[in-house]
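anyone else get weird line breaks when pasting these?? whatever heres mine. first is seq + tokens for prot A
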Amino acid sequence: MLFALFGLNRAGRILYGTLFVLGAAAFIGWTLLPGLRFSDQDEQLFRAARHGDRAGVERALSAGASLDHQAPVDRKTALFRAAVFGHADVVRLLLERGADPKAVGADGRSALEVVLAARGEEKDPAAAHALDAVAAALREPAAAR
């Protein structure tokens, strides 16, 4: 009907038909696929890491959460979440379980780089101390953990 309304010729119909199909495929890929890659266990792991819930992290890992999965939005792992919120004990746990401290997010920075940048901007002494502890944990060699 729109084709008749706008008087499009065959080439216009093909062009707009192709754009519609590609747009629909992009919309489905954007909304559906990240949800398929990010499981409930991964969501629980990220939530526990963000809140410094060591027992929650252990439960999520036992339930099958992966340390390698990245958030669909910023491509950062649970290690980033625990690190930037200053949860050094959870950072150590994730590192002990095999989290990669050299993984980078969509911005190209590692967890240590993100923590150091946050530490440079932090005004609260308690939060700054927590970020220092996280940075120390991320700098520890694997054998020391």
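and prot B, same format (seq, then tokens)
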Amino acid sequence: MRARVKVLLHANFREIVGKREIVEEINSNSTLRHLLEKLAKKYGRDFKQIVELRTGAISLEFLVSINGRIVRDTNVRLNNDDILMITIPAGGG
């Protein structure tokens, strides 16, 4: 069974893809890691750096949320109609 998730793109991710949002089809048992790997294969560049290879978690250099909740665990299961947001944290100074 297939599911669809909306991916909202901010900062350089928007520039890489050339759109503010995309819709991705996934398997109904897909995790956040599966989707991020799919995006990295499709778009390369910064998408490849979102998941830390050593830990498998979301890198602190990036901000990923699902339905408004920030996540670091890439083993989170995605559901149909989830809204994923990918950006870079705003810095202060």
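btw re prot B: The radius of gyration is 12 Å. Residues 32-43 form the longest helix (12 residues).
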